[in-house]
Amino acid sequence: MMTAPLPSTDGVRVAVRVRPFSQREKTSGSKCVISMHSRTTTTIRDPKNPEHRKTFTFDLAYWSHDGFQKDQDGVFISADPSSQFASQKDVFHDLGRGILDSAWQGYNATLLAYGQTGSGKSYSMVGFGANKGIIPNVCEELFQAIEKQEGNEEYQVTFSMLEIYNEQIRDLLSRTKKPGGLKVREDQQLGFYVDGLKSVPCENYAQIERLMEQGTKIRTTASTNMNASSSRSHMVITIQFKQVFLDSNLTKQSSINLVDLAGSERQKSSGSEGDRLKEGSRVNLSLTSLGNVISALADAATGKRVLHVPYRDSVLTKLLQPALGGNSRTTLIAAISPADICYEETLSTLRYAERAKKIQNKAVVNTSTLMRESKAENNKVLLTRGNSRMAERPACLLAEPGPGPQTGQPTWAHQLEQAREEWHQQYLAIAQERQMTETLPHLLNVNEDPQLTGVLKYFIQAGSCDAGRAASNAILLQGLGISDKHASFTNLDGKVTVTPQSKCKVVINGVPIVTKTKLQHLDRIILGSNSAYLYIGFPSERGNEDLNRFDYDFFQLERAAAEGVSVDKLGAAGCREGNADPSVLAVFQDYVKLMPLVAEANQMGKELEKGLRMELKVKNLASSDSRGYDLQKEVMVKVTHQRTHEVWIWSKAKFINRKFLMEELYQRFLEGEDGRVAQEDDPFWDPVEVVHLGSAHIWLQPLAYCMKLEDQVEFLNCDGIEEAVLHIHVTPCSPAGQACGEEDVVIDPSELLGKRMDFQIGLVRCLGIKWLKEGAERGIQMGYRIYDLSSTFYTKPVWKIVNPQIEETVQFTALNASQEFLNYLQTNALIVDLWGLQEGCAQLSCSQPDPMVTSEGHIMVDTKKISTVMDTGQTTSNQISELYMKLLKLEQEMELLRNVNRALREENVLLKYSLEKAGSAQQAQKPSDSGKVTQTPAQLPAEGEIHHTSAQQASSDRELAKALKVFYQSLNVARGQFLRLRHYKPPEDDGLLRPFVHQQSQRLKDFGELLESSLWRLKSDVARIVKEKRACSLHPG
User: Do the Cβ atoms of 654 and 636 come closer than 8 Å?
Assistant: First the structure.
């Protein structure tokens, strides 16, 4: 009996690889935030705070971002000897050969590829075109090494391929789908295994290539049928490699697991941020569980006490148990994007890899004694096969029992014989498809995953052929929104046309069609919600085109452009000198990415009879903050119930989470299960909520000059379109609430510094509310915040009235106006938000603590200094309130004394000046009696003269205040015109472009004239006031 080999402790080996910019990132002007200064270090820079950098150290760091070129075979190689570029060959040399070395030694080996969707995981694992990845290179070199072996050893290789999606396992080498997927079983000795998984014997690398193509084809078809993106599924390839040493009657068995994990962004907690169905989706479960397993093992490796490692929480972690902390040599390759817009995802991936690096495995060499029956069978097959080289290699071995308890398993020779029959049939089918590809026009599928693009081909035979779901169609299509008979293709006289059936959706080059349309070579076709195909014409039409450029992104960008969505439209206000704002570019990418998802969600809702319509919107597309700067834009989804007209607004993260749940529900529906669920579990339903309709900006500059502002301003929605009109006044007043007059106007706001300011904000009326026109059972509320108050002030709800009277006024008081508050008034706007109420939703109310109020009951603003005094006090709240009111009263009295003192000082200076003037006049007269001072009334300013001068001064100030008031009112109008001007968008119809340009030119002209006339009037008024003042000073009588 053999002694069990001692396990060796091995840490998980971790490599990180950064890819080049994608075309979308290049178009967006993305910046690189990744740097690698050695073969082991990776540094990431925060794009919002460039000084903040974090450096990670791994076993290997691969720079594949730039410094490369294509050779004559299309393989990417270093552009020059000094380049840091890491090619596919370099990655395989370090990682792939390590896996092969472990397998030859008899160790189990696992390679995991981790990273967000589009980060380059599949490129590293599988490769693309001439740039083969780790998996094909491992398989090819394994067979090359077998062929070179000499001696009395035999080798056996089997290949299996599975996919895990939504906690269901699909065998990618089996054409029949088992309902509910294959099951994971557990054996006391073998651990977890997949019951019923097909494992195919292979004699050479070409057979493995065919199996991978077959598996990819089944995966693509399943992805289309289930409406499931491959980026949300895990692919596991397992190669069982057995070495038999006939001289010593020993075997070495190695299990090579190559795992391409789902996109890591799917496990983010923010994926369901703010969603009541946060824990509902099983799509996220596998990666979340994998993260929990890695964290637990990392903690255990650092000496922390770990009571439980949650392997059993998901299908994936059950199957990966040997790879993580068990009997395997494991490598993790973390694929990352270099782009600044992916910073959060990339940082998350690097942290994940850092935790995985701490895990310790206990790998052993898997050896066993060759069974006597096995040896006899091997010798028998050897004699039967004679001198065949393959008979001398793997064909002559008896397979050990596979995973799980099995009886009556066929011998290795019998399995290989069956496989050869299947190979023969497949080679015939492949040869036939290749011939048809070269002679017939056809459709090539285009998938979000480049690995699945071009896998399916639909040939258009001569004559007419129908396409759709029904089995009777010549072209059998699956996918969301595909009808039983969706479209007809006609191939006659060297021309191919397509005709949509009934109301079926067919899009050619981004434009929907409804009649027969001729197809041109390389036309882009979308059928149903999002089934994308590239049309390949007759051989005479074909050239040496690069089909790779017609990828999934190309289709969606073309579709977006046809619908009028562009960077310019989303960010016209955010452009600076022709360069779009990076945040706008990021929003555009999100918008394009979500377009097909929204179309799919709408189709699922239609088939499930949910009665909803979802549409993409851009939050803050035409909105600005209180200083007029553009707010951060983000994509959201507006959901409308078509019967009840109820409306919900979902964030991007919430919509994506709901989309997963919709897919689960829809899949059960397709499988014949009851699609009905409890309302609280329905991803298509939410409780009614308050909806933000728009915002109005009221500039507060007149208030800084103690001027009243009364205006009608527009509520603009997220698209910059008028939602309603608000009649509002902002009025400076006395503590008692009496409006200030023109004599209270100040020329310089600094005159108000340190003084008490009272003002009222009055919402008078709201006019033409579209929200109320669209639904009879709706209501509205308005809310606003001012300066440093944390509370939002809401009006009372108003229901079912399109032009409601609001008539709500609130008085605010700044007891000691600070410079910051005065600056705020001069540069900021009051933002009033309009909210839509729906029947059954809760009305809005202030959730913050009650604000401080004055003794008159007015709400206090500009309380920073006061709050500081209150925070440092040690008395109770009642004592603070009492002391504070006393302090305020003292401050008010002190201010009055200061004013009286200031006035007396000014009068004293005037009298002093008059006395000095009178004294000098007396000396000039040289009176005879020098000891007696005499002063006549004529030598002092007369009382009437003083009053006359003061009246002139007051009159001049009033006139100047009037002029300023008129100027600021006209400036407010101009500011409103300018804001509206920014939100006008050019029409999509070219025929309407000329009238639009003319109207826009007229608007600009009107705006310019308004500014000029306002300035001219102010200059004229000031000149008149100065002239009158001079005249009065020259002729005081």
Answer: no
